[in-house]
Amino acid sequence: MSPVHVPEHNSGSGSLTLNPVLGGVASSSLLTPRSPPPSYGNIVTVLSIDGGGVRGIIPGTILAFLEEKLQEIDGPEARIADYFDVIAGTSTGGLVTAMLTAPNKDGRPLFAAKDINKFYLDHCPKIFPAASSWPFGLWKTMTGPKYDGQYLHSIVKELLGGTRVSQALQNIVVPTFDIKLLQPTIFSKYDAQNDVSKDALLSDVCISTSAAPTYLPGHHFQTKHKDGTPRDFDLIDGGVAANNPTMLAITDVSKQILLGNRDYFPIKPADYGKFLVLSLGTGSAKVEGKFDAAASSKWGVLGWLYNSGATPLIDSFSQASADLVDIQASVLFQALRSEKRYLRIQDDELKGDTSSVDVSTPDNLRRLVGVGEALLKRSVCRVDVETGKSVPDKNRGTNEEELLNFARLLSQERKARLQKKGIKQ
Fold this sequence. Notes:
Elements (H helix, E strand, L loop, with lengths): L8 E2 L4 E5 L4 E3 L17 E6 L7 H18 L11 E4 L2 H10 L14 H12 L8 H8 L6 H11 L10 E8 L4 E6 H6 L7 H8 L9 E6 L5 E7 L2 H4 L3 H13 L16 E6 L12 H4 L4 H5 L6 H24 L6 E4 L16 H16 L3 E3 L6 E3 L6 H23 L4
Parallel strand pairs: 4-5, 4-10, 5-6, 10-11
Antiparallel strand pairs: 1-2, 2-3, 6-7, 6-9, 8-9, 12-13
């Protein structure tokens, strides 16, 4: 396969080029100090990004808006990773997580948030090329992954180079699933710092968490234990474990508190009222109502795996896990009377190609950008615990207004921490 060409990115401070050592970028920007750990502040800040293939453009649009507002408050060099203590991502969300937290040669984030969508627009047509026409396309899907993953693997390896999980600029949480052991395998910066066998290449983690069954091949790689013996990983898509990684991120923080990690002292394990959580979905097609019990009762294995251009089995378990996590988090924050510290932004009304994870035509990718922009103008919704549907929250404004409030809170928290640590801003 020929070498992958990665176009230059513009982060708002001049042209950027790939750094062959870190897989990062060279920048002429002034360095901006990252926020000190939560022990210097009052809240723990968490960002979570769902899986969803090309629909990663939707949270990419939301993050670009949030970073723009942070830059209006704190200056043009502000980046998402400067404000969140934990960034979690599944599948396509794991790739976005890496883009936001992998360091360039200056120790700054590899991508500005506004560059994420450009990456998707440039590379998704090659990651998910148009499938062969009937019957060859269907036959290929039935006998192996729909895509060979070669382009995705090449671009991810070129971007991230030798960067390891422990080198992420903030704590990251990326779920995968070990198909050999039949159990989730969660990669986080804290685990990588304490267990060398979990300090995998960030590129291997991104490839693994994106290996959606029937779409992309599973990924095998090795690391080494402290004594030098090998550790094997046989991984597939993190969406099998947690398509919405919000609770994984909160659990990771709770684990560190229980372990006595000084980054979180004096926060207590049950002090969820001190969390500020932004959870970004990638959309779903609930309103379409494509299938029903009568139809599904007639399906065999093939019907569940591929039906009318959809993958009912995969769509069902990924959407179920995402919704359950949203319900759990929403109820938890409501019970603690801290509901305004939890913001879930999700569109349940996708239709046609926009609900697909792999339709990467220029028209559909542009439509997904439009979905994200329209979502900003919508009212904040919360989950109805009885129906599972999203309903407008009458006590809150639009997603755009809430994100602006979040930007102010994030900025205030970061400034307070920097001041307490004696770092000049």
